[in-house]
Amino acid sequence: MQIAKVRGTVVSTQKEPTLTGIKFLLVQLIDEEGQPLPVYEVAADRVGAGVGEWVLISRGSGAREVEGNANRPIDASVVAIIDTVTVENQRLYDKGTQW
Predict the structure, then answer these.
(1) What whole-number distance in Å separates Cα of residue 58 and Cα of residue 97?
(2) What is the value of pTM for the model shown?
(3) Which one of 28-37, 60-69, 72-81 scores highest in mean pLDDT?
(4) Could you tell me which of 51, 47, 61, 60 has the C-alpha nearest to residue 27?
């Protein structure tokens, strides 16, 4: 899994039928110091994450299995909305103070 920040949404009116009803988010990966990396990814969202929130994403076959159908063409899924991140007893992120 990797930490990412939700930067936006991705909307598609035409898509693979197995993807019907799945919301897609544009996420930016975060490094171990809490800084955004210049790497973006589209991830399926089943947890209701919003723009600006930090999330955990799962990739590969694990991402497809989270969606309940291993045959879906999903490479990344949002599996959790992060409340806090602490590294070496220092608060790196706190959802309650980010707004």
Answers:
(1) 25
(2) 0.88
(3) 28-37
(4) 51
By C-alpha distance, which of 54, 67, 56, 59 is closest to 16?
A: 67
Domain that holds residue 16: 2-97
Calpha distance 91→10 (Å, rounded): 31
Q: How many domains, the chain? A: 1
Single-letter residue type at 60: G
CA dihedral 83, 87, 89, 95 (to 10 degrees): -20
- CB-neighbour burial class of residue 17 (10 A; exposed 0-12, middle 13-18, buried 19+): exposed
CATH number reported for the structural domain that contains residue 83 in this entry: 2.40.50.220
13-36 pLDDT tens trace: 898 888 888 899 999 999 989 999
pLDDT, residue 46, reads: 84
